[in-house]
Amino acid sequence: MKNWILFIAAMLSLVSCHKTPQTKKIKVPAEIEQLIAEMTPEEKVGQMTQITLGAFYKKNVLQTEKLKEYIVKYNIGSVLNIPKPGVPSIEKWHEVITLIQDLAQETRMKIPVIYGIDAIHGTTYTKNSTLFPHNIGLAATGNPKIAYQGAQITAKEVRASGIRWNFDPVLGVGRQPLWSRFEETFGEDPLMVEEFGLATIKGYEGDDVKNIPNVASCMKHFIGYTVPRTGKDRTPAYISDIELYNTFIPPFKKAVEAGSKTIMINSGSINGVPVHANKYLLTDLLKNEWGFDGLIVTDWEDILYLHKEHMVAHNNKEAVKMAINAGIDMSMVPNDLSFYHDLVELIKEGEVSMERIDDAVRRILKVKHELGLFENPYPEKEAVAHFALDEYPKVALQAALESMTLLKNDTLKGKAILPLIKNTKVLLAGPAAQSLSSLHGSWSYTWQGTNEKVFPESTLTIKEAIEAKVGAKNVNCISPEGFHQVSDKELKELKRQARKADCIVLCLGEGSYAETPGNIEDLELSQDQIKLAKVAAETGKPIVLVLTEGRPRIISKIEQDIHGIIMAYRPASKGANAIADVLFGDYNPSGKLPFSYPQFSGNITTYDAPARSEKYYNPQWPFGYGLSYTTFEYGNIQLNTDTLNVSLKLAVKIEVRNTGKVDGAIQTQLFVKDIVATVIPPIRKLRKYNKVFLKAGESKILEFELDKSDLTFINPDLAEVAESGEFEIQIANKKKMFYGKF
Ligand code: BGC
């Protein structure tokens, strides 16, 4: 069983730490080899050391002597994170990075420092940058091009800030809705994660990372981070080999093939083995089998955590030995020189070979070289011209609009509740009505995204955007300050004000959080918000719910009381404008859920669960669900042949018509169901998707092509196979059988 082979390989990598992994030597320019030949072991270890800028601050004052010591004496190769205090301006960034690169020029080898930052839905940490919807919303657009455009703008603003390395995109498949980083994922489907991930990488790296305005991307977090069994951040995952290869590996493998320059490792573990110590995954698979020739960086403090959290090492030194021998190239230490000192000793003791160290340094210097840092490590004046251009908020608005997902639209008195007419007297109620942080989520000007004082002045709350659209006189608002605190006074006020309102728009969801602080015990929406919704329902007024949330908080207790529901995810800078446009019909929504929205906490599953689970797939709304203000109808599925084989592809045609009165876009998802397979087949699998815009009354023929690779799965020998037999194509409510003959 391969399962055992993987397990034994991983365990061996834990115990036989002094054995050097045999990594295939990567190709680098001759000058890099020359540098490596001239460097001392200490200088090499310095290059492998990444320190947070925060380590050089006392209160808000940068300790330049300490910075100088780390760079000039210890040759640290990389710095991450942000200058203090507040959100740095472009000028502040330039000042700090210039200082760092000046210090690097004082070292014997004059190797530039590579600075890394998290700009994960726009340029998180530069004042007045534009933020785009989090990935979960981008996936709902069904339009990877918009992800590409957002990433390109992000690269421009990051490089304008003097930074050339972005710790993004997240390529983990989001299948654990409790997890606090769910919003950072492109949802539960591996194909969507792959295609949106590749578009993002292309947006960051362009054709050549050396050129302004491109930056190096960082695929993360390799691998299995997105499915902690407890739902808590950085806790163990248990993933069968088949699932690992079927679901989690493809986005990473494709991104490696696409040439992403760097990769960050999952802080957690798979099947009991911390990924930072897993030689099979890091060296045998990633570096050797896939031929990844970029650099592998740890996540925050994760070597130390092998000792302090995972308990697989007795002390930091043993942890360093494990991680480096497993294949780590750079340690995000990030607070001190413990990694440096331990690794220098390990080399002297022969516990880590120079061959392994040289492999790491070769990869680090290669990336620095590719980024043009050896030619000019300083912030570039020409790059600044790309900062904060007028077109960026337009792209952010377009992305937010396309992400809006209409989940419910009841007909009341013969008319759909949404869109609202513009002279409707609206009562806004709920904590998200005036919360910028709920609109933005994590990594928004600060790590947690909770400091609303630092958002650009142009950013609107939902209340402000609605007032701008229909006039303040038509809007009242009751907005509790937190997501867990609704007072009796506010509830009373809600009842009173509802009398004057034509409609109540509930703005519910979640405040902002990032990583471990976002852990929750219960996926249900907070009890206070449920109470608020119940009181709103008692008024008898029509109710629309707008959800701004990073994960699908269960709302089954109130869903039946609500007439219209818009899922807005974390739509960011222009999110409130997009919500207002959809509420009042200036935009016809076309978003589709990129995950299965759970109905019950005891029933969390994905749309592609094994066939036998089909009768239990009972979400509030399934993967791919999303309504429109118009109606669409599909014709029958037409095929060029009833048998697909190695040489004959299947050409699929289907007509779609906008049968309503409003223009609008429609996302079409093509699923394939494998009727019988030697490994229990999934209920169905997304194989193709597209989006077209149709004027009212217009129709189009959609064309898709399926080949053998669209019918494969991973078998118990971990081979990717397609088996002969019957398959069914499903597009909306249309179905058609065909045969696969291999
Ligand atoms: C996160 C990473 C991030 C890193 C650097 C870690 O805590 O898990 O996603 O890139 O910090 O900020």
Please give the structural blueprint:
Layout: H1 2-15, H2 30-38, H3 41-47, E1 49-52, E2 57-58, E3 61-62, H4 64-73, E4 78-80, H5 90-105, E5 114-117, H6 135-141, H7 144-160, E6 165-166, H8 190-205, E7 218-222, H9 241-257, E8 262-265, E9 269-270, E10 273-274, H10 279-289, E11 295-297, H11 302-308, H12 316-326, E12 331-332, H13 338-348, H14 354-370, H15 381-384, H16 391-403, E13 405-409, E14 411-412, E15 415-416, E16 426-429, H17 436-440, H18 462-470, E17 475-478, H19 488-498, E18 503-509, H20 527-538, E19 543-548, E20 564-569, H21 575-583, E21 632-634, E22 638-639, E23 643-645, E24 650-658, E25 664-674, E26 685-694, E27 699-706, E28 713-714, E29 720-721, E30 725-731, E31 734-741
Parallel strand pairs: 1-4, 1-12, 4-5, 5-6, 7-8, 8-11, 16-17, 16-18, 18-19, 19-20, 23-31
Antiparallel strand pairs: 2-3, 9-10, 13-20, 14-15, 21-24, 22-24, 24-27, 25-26, 25-30, 28-29, 30-31
Helix pairs in contact: 3-13, 3-14, 6-16, 7-8, 7-16, 8-9, 11-12, 12-13, 16-21, 18-21, 19-20
The chain binds beta-D-glucopyranose.
How would you explain this protein's 3D organization?
The chain has 742 residues and is of the alpha/beta class. The protein has three domains: 2-8 and 29-283 and 314-326 and 337-384, TIM Barrel, CATH 3.20.20.300; 404-616, Rossmann fold; 632-741, Immunoglobulins (Immunoglobulin-like, Sandwich), CATH 2.60.40. Strands 13-20-19-18-16-17 form a six-stranded mixed beta sheet, with helices on both faces. The chain has a five-stranded parallel beta sheet with strand order 6-5-4-1-12. A five-stranded mixed beta sheet has the order 23-31-30-25-26, with no helix packed on it. Helix 6 (135-141) crosses helix 16 (391-403). The longest helix is centred in the first third of the chain and has 17 residues, at 144-160. It is globular. It binds beta-D-glucopyranose. Beta-D-glucopyranose (BGC) binds at residues 80, 118, 167, 220, 299-300, 515.
